[in-house]
Amino acid sequence: MPRLKKIALGCTAALPLVLASCMGAGGNIPSASTPITQSEAQTGAEAHPKLLAEFGGAMTGSHAQYVQQVGRNIAVQSGLGNAASDFTVTLLNSSVNNAFAIPGGYVYTTRQLVTLMNNEAELAGVLGHEVGHVAARHSQRRQARAQRNTLLGAAGAILSGIFLGDSGIGQRLSRGFLQGSQLLTLRFSRSQELEADQLGVTYLTRAGYDPRAMATVLQSLAAQNALDASLQGRGDATLPEWASTHPDPASRVQTARQMAGDRTGVTNRDTFLARIDGLVYGDDPEQGIIEGRQFIHPELRLAFTAPQGFYMVNGTRAVSINGQSGQGQLSTGPYDGNLSNYVRNVFRALGGSGQALAPASLQRTTVNGLPAAYGTARVNSGNGQVDVVVFAYEFSNGQAYHFATISQAGRSGVFTPMFNSMRRISQAEASRVVPRRIDVVTVRSGETVSSLANRMAYDNAKEQRFRVLNGLGSRDTLRAGQKVKIVVRGT
Asked: Where is the LysM domain (predicted)?
């Protein structure tokens, strides 16, 4: 089945996200780490396939081989293993900016985060930071403090403080909405983030890389963060696409520079750019793509439009729809041909075992030729009452898909235009959906930021996107012979 999967409505793996924290005051930084234990190796081996499923699967081919080579080289500097082969380094087919490592020698980065980098030292720095968390056993320390642990640690329910308070039903509902967009994370303290950054800088130095790369990749992450906020219509840049509970990278740039000092090393910029040329950028059509406020899935042959003022995040299990007045997601589940039962089952799963959740009534309708059913349940939460709506559609392939939304009581109508926008697309429309890719080009005489940015495969913010993608400030210019990245359409 294509990549839009059934939403997991209970707790999911808590995944540590990359390089997005405020820096705290110092601490003692260990120069070496205790090697991987048998127990950690077993934990990692059990978690590995679950993580692959959560983040779009492992990529193969030359791009993945290159990331594996760099990742193993930096990971072995940690002392967790004696040989590069002790580490499993995976390039994930995910359009979110993310990287993490787990006990047992498993290291991951998404292709999207790799495309934001501008040299090999930055790639090594990101992976080194995550290996640093594992080397310092940060997840074990955090897990020991949390009783609500899942695969790796305590799950953070971001929506709870917005609509649902800390009630049991609120926690279950918020986790359900967050999982599809990969927003559950492991929370690290400020001192732990500092330690992981310092370890990352140490590993860069040991491997011969320029340790200043830690600061430059943080700067790119902060710039991408701000750009995403602007494009999504958010008034601040504190919640990036990957919604990390490690706070803002912008505040850490200067500290990372201080950590590096006046040490230098190789960056392997040209090698890096050559090796990532052609890498998919943004959404993979096999998982559906977001174009502005529209989501379109060429394999599932469906499309819908998010409400005005909302933005979407495309996850491997669901598409999340986020705004100030509500949240929701599109997902799917087992379907036996009875759409009313399907809606009831979604409500039942959202309620969990602790509290029954059922719609006050069920309505049948037709939306753009699709049989549909929907219902609303009003739920008491710590912050007042909320409305949970499940709106399901039957497609001709014998599959059902549904929106599950949450909003303050009486305000679920904000999602009505979205519910009514669901449609089945034609094969011709599906065939026109092609991925975006990174194209590395050499700047020719007379070419400028403006002229190259005009080639970016977007309808808006072309120059801003180009500058962030290439780590260029607002006043930076280009020189002939320089290699830069642009985003193009291509199969």
From this structure: 439-486
